[in-house]
Specification:
about 80 residues; alpha/beta; globular
């Protein structure tokens, strides 16, 4: 983890695109927060590499709670999502 990089919030982390984005962000040194309404998908691989799983939370308060500086949304996340 690189403290000079922004904390990244991945919305839609339960899908394949979201998981891939989370892996890339971790490989680049970001602190990664996983968010999705679906809490049923196993994300243990992402947690094992240091991602923090806050599912099923997916709300605006996450931005402040984790000092998020970068938001990545997976393609399946609707544009109506509050984040």
């Amino acid at each position: 983890m690189n403290a000079s990089l922004p904390v990244a919030l991945v919305c839609g982390a339960s899908g394949l695109s979201g998981q891939s984005a989370a892996r890339l962000l971790r490989a680049l040194g970001h602190t990664v927060i996983l968010s999705d309404r679906n809490a049923d998908v196993d994300l243990s691989e992402l947690k094992a590499i240091g991602c923090e799983d806050v599912r099923p939370r997916e709300d605006v308060e996450l931005l402040e709670a984790y000092s998020v500086g970068l938001v990545v949304t997976a393609p399946g996340v609707p544009l109506s999502n509050p984040i």
